[in-house]
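Before a colleague's protein record goes any further, I have to sign it off. I want your independent view on whether this chain really folds as the tokens say. The record follows directly below this note.
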Amino acid sequence: MLMQTHEARLDALRTELAKRGLYGFVVPISDEHMSEYVGSYAQRLQWLTGFGGSAGSAVVLKDRAAMFTDGRYTVQVREQVDGKLYDYEDVPATSPAKWIAANAPEGAKIGYDAWLHGIGWAEDAQKLFAKKGIELVAVDGNPIDAVWADRPQPSLAPAAPHDDRFAGRSSAEKRAEIGDWLKQEGYDATVITALDSVAWVLNMRGQDVDNTPVALSYVVAHADGTAELFIAPEKVTAQLTKHLGNAVRIRDRADFQPALSSFKGKKVAVDPNHAVAGIFHALEAGGASVVRDDDPAVLPKAIKTPAERQGHRDAQARDGVAMVKYLRWIEENAPSGDIDELGAAAKLREFRGLSPDLRDTSFSTISAAAGHAALPHYKVDEDSNIPIPPSSIYLCDSGGQYPDGTTDITRTVWVGPGQPSAEMIDRNTRVLKGHIELDLAKFPDGTSGGALDALARMHLWQAGMDYGHGTGHGVGSYLSVHEGPQRISKPGGAFPGTETPLREGMILSNEPGYYKPGEYGIRIENLVLCVDAKIPGSEGKYLGFETMTHVPLDRRLVNKSLLSESEIKWWNDYHAKTREILAPQLEGEDLAWLERQCQPL
């Protein structure tokens, strides 16, 4: 019998925990690869609680339960999760482990799935619980899976080669480089678990996770340049086998855990930031010497090859055409009040789909009207969907996946009739000034993203305002739209990567914003490429940014008198370049709209 209510599901889980002698259980949003976006088969938290955000967790105890989310989801969690069943807890003010330590009795056994949690979390929780006489227990089989009768199966979509002409380097080259690193460090092998790293190392893509073209699989790379790919046999085609060649042994994904016990006496590197605790446990149980070290694919994946850089430019030009059609459609249709957030997102997907090269969106479109735009990570659904009000600000953050690049763009526009308020124009202009400041930055090679973050905030700070999210994240090449290790955000904040040196070839977002709770939100986002700044007479190498996203900005939200001469020049140069890239691909009313938007300020 299928359980329709979240209360019934919670009761069923508690019954299952009691059978196993467990006092409680921790439920994260995660899969066996610690992915940002997870397949439907791994959406255990959503099935149990109803929460549809991309970051959060729950704890279920014998007589109490709690949901843990950060400030991005304060509103959403209360809309989606029943407060009679779960307490709402704010992270980082507390955490699942701290809450358990405060609410579970001495002697309690708390279960966790070691294939869904990082090793750092497991070790920290274990230490904290030991002080309280609480035992952390790695479960044998997830108890939610035991009660989730209609749980979807993992995708069996075929994995496919990613053309070397898009990648710019062959898989053999990448594996040889990893082999050299292993020999240099004295390691026998490394376990690569992050799905985008597996995809990058093997020049392979898949269809197993929404928005990210990856295949559910693991790689063990060896010091001699060979590798083992663990993947469901149904996903392997003759084309993939030929592409991988003799140096990559294809094995059943079900053999992965047993294979980890075969490294007795071997030195194996595993990245604690990307590998679940279960991998460490299995290797150690088999007698391997486990060394914690960075995933060797992360940094080279972030530094794009010349082919990937050009692919990004081409993908952006294609994506820009869809955005022009969309922004013109919004301008002409939204003032009627007949367009809602879901309808707008669907229309944008339709315009992107006019390109035969579109494979997917790169994340769920943030289509945010009025007060919803003040929620930086708002996700529209049937329950939250509202009409776009006339005479308001509308924010759209979206992106596409193309074989040659991944796009991510935010545009904030005024929906008529009438004019935006002086306050709205002021806030948007300050966000624009910060965006330009970062775009024009020149900095020594090796400068961290954390060192640049203040440039994007300075004009807001001067008026006593700020925004609560990072300014920039790395972006993959037909891979994850949120890619590490680099990041532009406040130093010492909650996000890893702020201290990572920026390197030539890295792609990042530039997305300052401003949010007035309950009223409106503003964000301007383009993608930028780290390039040689070529400063005459510079003492050492300096980097700057090449803007990769070219789509008009809304001039109705700009106060020209607040802009400096150099900022006005940036605006005019940016729109001249936008016209140059997009005009040859447009005609009729779309071209006329573009020409109007690209006039000098």
About this structure: Residues 330 and 415 are 8 Å apart (CA to CA). Residues 303-597 form a domain with the Creatine Amidinohydrolase fold (CATH 3.90.230.10). The first helix runs from residue 6 to 19.
